[in-house]
């Protein structure tokens, strides 16, 4: 039996885990949003470039 001891996890490990979690959530939420809104901001960028 492997006993999980949370004292083995350092502050850096928690930061890395939190960063991965935040990055994953951002990818899940903002990627579909970016794909949905892509035609709108692409057209606005093209209009601004002219």
Describe this structure in words.
With 50 residues, the chain is mostly helical. 78% of the residues lie in helices and 0% in strands. The radius of gyration is 20 Å and the shape is rod-shaped. It starts with 10 loop residues before the first helix and ends with a helix. The model has no long low-confidence stretch (mean pLDDT 86).
Provide a quick synopsis of the model.
The chain is an all-alpha fold.
Architecture blueprint of SSEs:
Blueprint: H1 11-49
- Largest sheet: number of strands, sense, barrel closure: none
Radius of gyration: 20 Å
Helix content: over 70%
Q: Topology as H/E string?
A: H
Report the β-strand fraction as a percent range: under 5%
Low-confidence stretches: none
Strand tally is 0
Helix- and strand-based class?
Answer: mainly alpha
Give the termini distance in whole angstroms. Answer: 66 Å
Mean pLDDT: 86
Instruction: Using the alpha-carbon principal axes, give the shape.
Output: rod-shaped
How many alpha or pi helices? 1
Q: What characteristics describe this protein?
A:
single chain; 50 residues; mainly alpha; 1 helix
């Amino acid at each position: 039996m492997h006993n999980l001891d949370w004292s083995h996890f350092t502050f850096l490990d928690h930061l890395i885990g939190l960063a991965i979690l935040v990055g994953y959530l951002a990818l899940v939420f903002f990627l579909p949003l970016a794909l949905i809104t892509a035609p709108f901001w692409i057209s606005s960028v093209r209009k601004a470039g002219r």
